[in-house]
Amino acid sequence: MRGGSLKLRSRIFPPSVRTGHELSVLEDHQVSTAHAPVPDGQHAEPGLAPEQGTTLRIAITSAPPGLRLAGEIDATTHDAFRQALAVATRSCDGDVHADLCGVSFIDVDGLRALVVAATTMGPERMLVLHSIPAHVARLLELTGWDEAPGLLIEGGGR
User: Fold this and answer.
1) Which of 17, 48, 76, 124 is a plausible cystine mate for 52, CB 3.0–4.6 Å?
2) Which domains does the chain have, with CATH numbers?
């Protein structure tokens, strides 16, 4: 992964598009992992305790088109998360779906990334959030972002 280009959904992105995080986003049921750096600058290895590094698993889905997310969305995984959102929103012309059922933590900047993606998709498209954990739904309500233009919360009555 270091040095070459990153292939996402049959597109080639040069190394300059990537962040310092290792990220591979695979189609559908193949889930990839973005490992955030641990304090000493090393990458966390799978299976390490959460305090040693944050892991966000991202899968690009085709039916419905969008993302399936699991893990933590925080300062150490924001770049990978934003990159995956950008790929998903550019990859289809219609609505983009995000399955958040595996998200154990999301900070305000992660929520903001969802809202920015939703509001910049255009008037005929929506970012549809599915399987939202209660803590994420509560944060969206507290910030008022549950009413953001272009954002549709499945089961939210909007």
Assistant:
1) 48
2) 6-153 (3.30.750.24)
